[in-house]
Every structure is written in C-alpha cells, then in structure tokens.
Predict the structure.
Amino acid sequence: MTDAAKAQDHVLIFDTTLRDGEQSPGATMSHDEKLEIAGLLDEMGVDIIEAGFPIASEGDFAAVSDIARNSRNSVICGLARANFADIDRCWEAVKHAAKPRIHTFIGTSPLHRDITALDQEGMIEKIAATVAHARNLCDNVQWSPMDATRTEHEYLCRVVETAIKAGATTINIPDTVGYTAPRESADLIRMLLERVPGADRIVFATHCHNDLGMATANSLAAVEAGARQIECTINGLGERAGNTALEEVVMAMRVRNDIMPYQTGIDTTKIMHLSRRVSQVSGFAVQYNKAVVGKNAFLHESGIHQDGVLKNVQTFEIMRPEDIGLTSKNIAMGKHSGRAALRAKMAELGYDLGDNQLKDVFVRFKALADRKKEVYDDDLIALVADTSASGGDDHLQVRKLRVVCGTEGPQEAELTLAVGGEEKFVDATGDGPVDACFNAVKMLYPHSAKLDLYQVSAVTEGTDAQATVSVRLSRDGRVYTGQSADTDTVVASVKAYVNALNRMHAGQGRANNSALQTSAAG
Ligand code: KIV
Ligand code: ZN
C-alpha cells in the first residue's frame, strides 16, 4: 500500500481519459495530443495516468512509451488482457516511467466466463498465472475483474483473493456496464474488505460507467465504504454514456468535505483548461449543463438568481469559478491589444504558447478582431485549437473559397485547394452551402472515406460569433477527426473537413473498433 493511500483520508485519482476515454467511438487523439494531455494530467496532480493499451496498435504502444518517458510525478499505467503477450507488451511500454504500473484484467461474470470458455477453476488458474507474471516484471500491479458488479459475490471474493496472493497491489472493481447503484457499490467494497484475506494490504479502486447516470454517486459511495482510488476521465469521456467524471468526484469531495472528508492531490484550478483541451482534441463537445465544466455551470439567467448572486454570490453558487480555473475577468480583447497582452491572456487561460505558436495565434487574433467587435476568452481558446489543428506543411490547404447560397438552390461553391503543393480549382454544387463545399473538396481530392459526424457549435453569443466545427471520417476501419473555428460557419466546416482529410493522408487515425476486445482474455 502506498504512503498516500495509508492515510485514510487520501483518495488516489486514476485518470483513464487516454485509455477508456479514448476508447469512445470517434474520440481519436493524435500522438502529440496524447502527450500533451498526459503532461497536463501530471501537472494537475493525477496520481495514476492510464496512458493506453499498448498491444492494441503500434500507435498505442508508441504513445504509452513516450508518455512513460516524459512522466514526472504520476504513475504511468498500461492496460493488458490476461495473457503473457499483452502483459509483456505493456511492460515494454510502461517500463520507461519512473513509476510504472501494469493493469491486467479479465471478465469474471458468468456472461464473460462463457465468452472466454473458461470455467470458474480455469479462470482462477489464469488469474494466478497472469498476475504473477505481471508482478515478476513490475512491483506495481493492478488487477480488475471486469463486470465485477455482475459477478457472483462468492466467486468475486475468490478471484480477488487469488489476485492478491499472486501479487496484485491494487484491486479495481469495475462496474463495466454502469449497472450498479450507490448502496450496492458501497456494499460490494465493504464485503470484499471484510471477507477477502489480504484485503487490508492492497488498495481497492472503483471504476464506474455512467449508463444510468450514477457513476459519480457510485464512485463516491465506494470511497465511503473503503475504496481509496477512483478511476475517472476528464469530462466523463468514455464509451456509451462515459465514465465517472474526474471533475465531478474531485469537486464533490472538496465542496462537501464536511460529509466526505477525503483529500486528493488535484490542483482544481487546472480542471477547466484540461476539460477544454480534452473536448477539443477528442472532438466531444461538453454539454452546456454538464456539472462543473459545462458552459452554463456558473451562468445565472433567471432574474431571482442574478439578483441573489449580485447580493451574495453564495446564494446560488456552491463553488467559485476560479476554483476550477475559470477566470472571473472575461475581459474582451480588441484589435488594439498587443502581443504581450495576448501572451498574458493565454497564460491566464492555461496556455503556455511558444514563440512560433504565439506568432501564428496573434496574426489570426488580429484578423478576428478586425471582423468581430469583441474577442472573448472562448474565441481565443478556439483560435489556439484551430492553429494547432492545422500546419503549414499540410497536404491539403484551403486557398480560396466563394459560396453562392440563398433560397433558390442548388448552392454553389468555388474552391481553390492546394493538393500536395499544386493549386486546383473547381466549381461544385450541392444541397446547401456546406454540401456544395464538401462536394468541391471531394472532386479535387477524391477519397472513399465516410462522413460519420458533422457538428457545429457557436463559441460565444451573437451573430458575429465564431463557430467551431467537428468532422469525423472513417475509412477501412479507422477514424479521423478534424476541427476548425471561424466566424464564417461554412469556412470553418471546409477547414474542419480538410483537417480530417489531412490526418487521413498522414495516417493519423485510430482503429474504429478499438483492438480492445474487452471480453476476450486472449
Ligand atoms: O470498464 C471496465 O471494465 C474496464 C476494464 C478494462 C477495467 O475498463
Ligand atoms: Zn471501463
């Protein structure tokens, strides 16, 4: 047991945004983006970062290895199914970390035992052998009985005991399908602590999915019963309805520390920046009324609420915006603001821009300030995301676009696109301006990718607001995402589409169905 976990009031935060979160269909992140997110998580004080599933692909292996090499304080963990090949590959990737961890798992519920064609005894043998193998490689081994909340209690106690005897140092109890409820979640941890020999020597973790909207409550209930590690993701990113949201459990334990007297090592002022970056790089927008990090989480629309907040902010606010890193001074920047002011503003928003990036963002900021009366924080954040999404050496580059639209269709797009440095022009029509533009791109750069997602959202209020557009393409079982922002929604759409195609051209996609066949023990 780690020193931190021994102190009864400390709860370890295990972030799996880069593994379980990225497994969410379409939540592709590039290698550099994964490194950036891991760096931010480390800086925020996450105890353990689950960086990926090394055997899933060369890309996953490279990402976990590089995250391990660059890690500072966090433990770096990789996932492995219950077989030697997975575990060896995982170790090869995480061993570069100052503090490595192997996380191995197998589905233990009757449904999963059926799929792996193992009977109860056969599975026990497999668990003993694989956990011992992992422990021979690494001192820090986490083991999970997948679908624990639908595993017979008697059998769950036996498998947990087996894993502890074989050397597991953390036992994670996953509610894989988001099936449990708070009281049951607590009872399960209590039962394991009471009945399993050796349970007092290891850390119990809780890993909840949000299918019934109870992931946060279930995780906190498990902690009250004795779990000392919460597995979670930024924005609750994850398959189906997602995982426990890091920002929710951390802020719940902080705001209601009177009834949940636990501490974490999280610097909560970094939450908002991470939330935005994860949303930008994954292409998963945060719902406006999402707890803690939603756009409306600190907005007071009704007259009574506004009046109350003006007189005493505590009437309707239980946390301060600055506690999660929301700058209270949303001061608009204008066209007279200089480079130093922009750098200071970006630093305040959590962005440490290098000289070259600052130069690019500044040019685009000036152009935006010319078109838009006031440039707000969210505008600047969208600009940075857009600048880092595209580069000067991209295969496809939008040079010029003119669109004719109106009540009389078909709409028309004249597009000049540089393809591998060669400028090409086309005049295309379509059912609406965006369709006409996408047709034009496809005529100049024929491809067989399918458009799986096209999503537009306004960055700020007003008709001169920027729009951010996310596009997701798939081809041959791989997905490619692109994003862009512009005051012209059609321009943002074309740039997001071209951005996704550039990623496809550069081979920066990921498997559509993650190689993680969670039920296959391999
Ligand atoms: O939800 C789950 O069961 C998992 C395991 C691989 C731990 O993510
Ligand atoms: Zn999971």
Remarks:
- Confidence is low (pLDDT under 50) at residues 517-522.
- The radius of gyration is 24 Å.
